[in-house]
Amino acid sequence: MKAEQMKADERIKTLRSVLYFIEPYKNRLLVSILMALFTVVLSLYLPILIGRAVDLIGRIKETGSKEELLTLLIAMAGVAGTGALTQWILNLSNNRIVFYVVRDIRKQAFGKVAELPFTYLDGHTHGDVLSRIITDVDQFADGLLIGFTQAFTGIITIAGTLLFMLSVNVTVTAVVVILTPLSLFTANFIAKRTFGMFQLQSEARGEQTALINEMIGNQKVVQAFSQEKKVQKQFDEINERLGKYSLRAIFYSSLTNPATRFVNNLVYAGVGLAGALYALSGGLTIGQLTIFLSYANQYTKPFNEISEVIAELQNALACASRVLELIEAEPEAADGAEAVRLAATAGNVELDHVYFTYRRGQKLIEDLDLRIRAGQRVAVVGPTGCGKTTVINLLMRFYDVDSGRIVLEGKDIRELTRSSLRAAYGMVLQETWLRNGTIWENITFGKPAATKEEVIAAAKRSRADSFIKRLPEGYDTMIGEDGGSLSQGEKQLLCITRVMINLPPMLILDEATSSIDTRTEMRIQEAFTLMMEGRTSFIVAHRLSTVRNADVILVMKDGCIIEQGGHEELMALKGFYWEMYRSQFVGA
Questions:
Q1: Taking a C-beta distance cutoff of 8 angstroms, is the pair 548, 538 a contact?
Q2: What pTM does this model have?
Q3: All residues at 6 or more sequence positions from 556 whose CB lies less than 8 Å from its CB, including other chains
Q4: Running DSSP on this structure, what letter comes out for residue 543?
Q5: β-strands 411-412, 403-408: how paired?
Q6: Where are the alpha helices (DSSP H) in 116-169?
Q7: Do residues 207 and 234 make contact, with C-beta atoms less than 8 angstroms apart?
Q8: With b meaning 16 or more CB within 10 Å and e meaning fewer, what string describes 354-366?
Q9: C-alpha to C-alpha distance for 218 and 125, rounded to whole angstroms
Q10: Is the dihedral angle over the CA atoms 392, 397, 403, 405 positive or is it negative?
Q11: Contact present, 375 and 537 (Cβ < 8 Å)
Q12: Is the dihedral of CA 143, 149, 150, 156 positive or negative?
């Protein structure tokens, strides 16, 4: 009972959120309601004209006049044509509402991704987030469109039909009203069971999308380790679950139509029987009986449509709840009300007794205390998992420290706006990221207004110009997602060029030359040396040959700095750094 109540509350909450997105288009919604009203009134008036025509045909033999019948036929054609026009306007208006609502939801969901803290993105697979924004929104759009198109006309038809039937005969109308609750009970009974199934279906579909996205992006690794069968087995398991949930959802939702049709047939039979008895006793004319039978059919038809709508809406609401959960997720903490922009910086950085961990109970950075002067080249080395990249994440405020503080030019970085703080750093990571576009667009990603001379000069300094010129269209060559057919080294050169074109006051090089051959690395190191001149630079490296010329080398282990100094000084200590260096260059 509690679970059912929670699901009901969740549906209500989701529906309210959906109404919030519909609210800006209330004028269009009013147009849809009016068009639905006109469509229904015209469709209900048509049987009255037909009934009159039936009675008139019976009297033609006596009067011999056909002019009145011709007038009725012209009126019927006019009513049918006007009804078709209002139905077209109704569908057009509904389609526009759904398009705008879906556009707004998807726009807000995509915008929210940029606001989410890294803790959220780390806790959800990229494929699942992608499924929410693409697949779930599409499913929601389909359900919403059906809901608007059929729910409006269905509800108005039911109400209008009852009024028209009451105006003809109260007793026969009572038969219809008495049997109506059966349809409502049937639809409600099934709807309660379909929402949960559709929700499980959406979750499984998101899980499947995540796996497909992950495997397509890493197919080389899968094949290199001969994991095709294991991955296929994992996919089959998710696919089996998705099939099971889908079949259950479809089974319950497919019961609505035949169940409500059975009830509707009972209503139609009841109207026919009661109407026939009244007609025999003279209480109804044949034309009026025709009107009632037509109304009985029109009255019961919306129940079939609404039952289908309910099933579709359950799926739509289940999908909407997933994308709304993304939209309503807690965003990254906003800049404080008193946060100021970092106007300029020389690059004086302090880490004042910093503590940080990604997961509670799992220690990482503990009591990290460090002073870095402007213009210093600081290398951070140590074994995998010691916290090197975490320090970079904290400097850029991708994560906030648990305790302690990071100070830039005497100011706690939490008192600075994130955008101005991050603009002060140029960052080249081990993992390259390139967008789908031209070489030029990728290089100028952080400086769209860069001139041709600036771009070419930056490419020459990074040693990327030579390979770019060999491409079919040079700087205008289109590259696919994540660099397309470029080699890993070429992609890294483009990322380095992207930083060189901005030359911010501080640099972060996180394994920036890890994918480049030794000869090219030596040339890039020369460019880096020029680029780092007068700039505070943080160099994260595994290859110790790249950090020998650093002003300060920080040796990290288990989140703490265990050694600190220049290369010669650390070698003289014959400590952990000495051991690491010998392990890389023994026998060299």
A1: no
A2: 0.63
A3: 380, 381, 382, 386, 387, 388, 391, 562
A4: S
A5: antiparallel
A6: 118-123, 126-131, 137-146, 152-168
A7: no
A8: bebbeeeeeebbb
A9: 14
A10: positive
A11: no
A12: positive
Measure the N-to-C terminal CA separation of the chain; round to a whole number of Å. Answer: 73
Q: Are 15 and 317 in contact (CB under 8 A)?
A: yes
Give the HSE-up count for residue 475: Cα atoms under 13 Å, Cβ half-sphere. 18
Question: Rg of the chain over CA atoms, in angstroms?
Answer: 35
The residues near 14 (Cβ < 8 Å, ≥ 6 apart) are 317, 320, 321, 324
Cβ atoms of residues 319 and 137 within 8 Å:
yes
Tokens of 420: 């101005």
DSSP structure class, residue 474? G
Contacts of 215 (CB under 8 A, 6+ apart): 222, 231, 235
The span from the CA of 318 to the CA of 201, in Å, is: 9
d(CA 333, CA 225): 41
137-146 and 67-115 helices, crossing angle to 10° = 160
Inter-CA distances, 130 with 17, 50, 206, 322, Å: 21, 54, 8, 11
**Which tokens is 186 given?**
């049937």
* Sequence-ordered list of residues with C-beta below 8 angstroms from that of 515, at least 6 positions apart, any chain: 430, 432, 488, 489, 491, 492
SS3 of 352-378: the string is: EEEEECCCCCCCCEEEEEEEECCCCEE
Taking only the tens of pLDDT, the chain with its 588 residues reads 444 554 566 777 777 888 888 888 888 888 888 888 888 888 878 877 877 787 777 666 665 467 777 888 888 899 889 989 988 998 888 888 888 888 888 888 888 887 887 777 777 777 778 778 888 888 788 777 777 667 777 777 778 877 877 777 777 777 777 766 666 676 666 666 676 777 778 778 878 877 777 776 666 667 666 677 888 888 888 888 888 888 887 777 777 667 777 777 777 777 777 777 777 776 677 777 777 777 777 776 776 666 667 767 777 777 888 888 888 888 777 777 788 888 778 888 898 888 888 877 777 888 888 888 888 888 888 887 787 888 888 888 888 888 999 998 888 888 888 888 888 888 887 777 787 888 898 888 888 888 888 888 888 888 888 888 888 888 888 887 666 678 777 888 888 888 888 778 888 888 766 666 777 677 677 777 777 888 888 888 877 777 888 888 888 888 788 888 888 888 888 888 888 888 876 644
One-letter amino acid identity for 268?
Y
Sheet holding 365-372, edge to edge: 365-372, 349-356, 403-408, 411-412
Give me the amino acid identity at 380: V
Cα gap 151→154, rounded to integer Å: 5
Beta bridge partners of 349: 372, 408
For residue 403, CA distances in Å to 189, 351, 366 come to 54, 11, 10
Count, residues in the chain: 588
